[in-house]
Amino acid sequence: MRIIVDRDRCVGHGICESIVLDVFEVLDEGYVHIHTDAIGDADEAALRDAVNGCPSAALSIEA
Question: Which tens digits make up the pLDDT trace of 46-56?
């Protein structure tokens, strides 16, 4: 599973970070960073919730 961030859309709400803290991190620059090394250990349902919960639709999942 691969998560893609559209930095043009991301405004740093941090909802994804609050759902899966080990994978998502909102940087000081105001957009989310993906910790790709943590994706394999994360709960897939929680990852999908984080992607679907993004209010600016900046996240997507690529299988």
Answer: 999 999 999 99
* 0.85 exceeded by pTM: yes
List the one residue out of 51, 63, 55 whose CA is nearest residue 16. 51
Amino acid identity at 16: C
Number of separate domains in the chain: 1
* Residues with pLDDT less than 70, the chain: none
Domain containing 15: what range? 2-62
C-alpha to C-alpha distances, 17 to 20, 24, 31, 32, 38, nearest whole angstrom: 5, 5, 11, 8, 13
Q: Determine the pLDDT at residue 63.
A: 76
- Tell how many helices (H) and how many strands (E) occur in the chain: 2, 4
CATH number of the structural domain spanning residue 56: 3.30.70.20
